[in-house]
Amino acid sequence: MTGRAGAFAPLFFLVLLPGVAVAEGLDAGDTAWMLTSTALVLFMTLPGLALFYGGLVRSRNVLSVLMQCFTIACVATVVWVLFGYSLFATDGGGANALIGGLQKAFLAGVTADSVEGSIPETVFIMFQLTFAIITPALVVGGFAERMRFSAMVLFSVLWLILVYIPLAHWVWGGGWLAGLGFMDFAGGAVVHINAGVAALVAAMVMGNRKGFPQQPMPPHNLPTTVTGACMLWVGWFGFNAGSAIAADGAAGMAMLVTHIGAAAGSLAWMCQEWLKFGKPSVLGIVTGMVAGLGTITPASGFVGPGGALVIGLLAGFVCFWATQFIKRKLQIDDSLDVFPVHGVGGFLGILLTAIFASAGLGAFSGLGLAEDQTIFGQLGVQALGAGATIVWCGFLTFVILKIVGAMVGLRATPDEETEGLDITMHDESGYNL
User: Fold this and answer.
1) pLDDT digits (tens, 9 = 90+) for 79-102
2) Would you call the peptide bond into 223 cis, given omega within 30 degrees of 0 as the criterion?
3) What are phi and psi of 94, to 5 degrees?
4) Topology of domain 24-409, per CATH?
5) Domain extents for the chain?
6) How far apart (Å, rounded) are the C-alpha atoms in residues 374 and 370?
């Protein structure tokens, strides 16, 4: 190779070798993986979760769900830029255990050369933003088909600021739970328990949909739901493996156990449904997949394949019966089963992390607990963190809903609900056939 082409040869090989640092403190391989992971996690919300939820509601409300997910992606981005990232990631001085500071409001001081660990800070900001987008979007499933659009926007903004950001700081931003050694690799508490509890509180405060539980409310488009579910499965590799913030063995193990958990959760749910109702359903197997993914999420950076298999199977079993209990026994209209799937799954995963992270379980061993920690000691920390999440989220979600209700009104009128939110809130229809 000669001339001008030869001058670019060293740069070409730098790009190909993931372990080579291309700038001080910056690793090309880590950066490439985190750019990919960030795109995958955003892909989970748009279009993954939007299509998954959109197919589950009735046809007259499909656009409302797509609109809600899209809008949350936009408003969460603005909040994150204004002060959300700063409150999440920076030192809040004396209050650092509870919330960060405002040193990086408007992303002050962030440049193309800023580094966070071995990746550009811009990539880290964007990766964490995708989590701040999907968490309130998950809550949409609890009040789908009955919340006014204006109320949804106001609730999502307040909930992101008052509930999600402080909790994310506690766990991932150097807050008090991080100081205790709380283990939540990719969001069992921060994302799944948090969203599940918020959805349950919203469903209870707003009341059941008109006609529930007497009137059947089946999904209007299962192919759309399955398409969204497949996107979620693929996107979840960025969600969990990306949380290693590096292209290394931990990321590889997280990806493997994530896939195992999803597959095991799907099969466990399907088999129970088959036994109980006589036939396996498409809706059941994809819901089991989501349960398996949500439950393996907090453990994904700490457990091995054997532990992941058990966690996935338990997720499908426990979340299936939690769904039956919430919907059939308590008759709480958590429209799209956010609490029994995400909330219960996240709680289960947080506890099981303490067990299967242990290095002393033979074929079911994980990557090991801290040197000064036992399984029972870590279980105590995990239970404390999960309990704190439930209390924090439950109380503040209730308060926020009451505030939003007083300001703009929470619920569509009975006539609007009957006609559908697509027409009454957006003057559009999802289908013109």
Assistant:
1) 999 999 999 999 887 778 999 999
2) no
3) -65, -25
4) Ammonium transporter fold (1.10.3430)
5) 24-409
6) 8
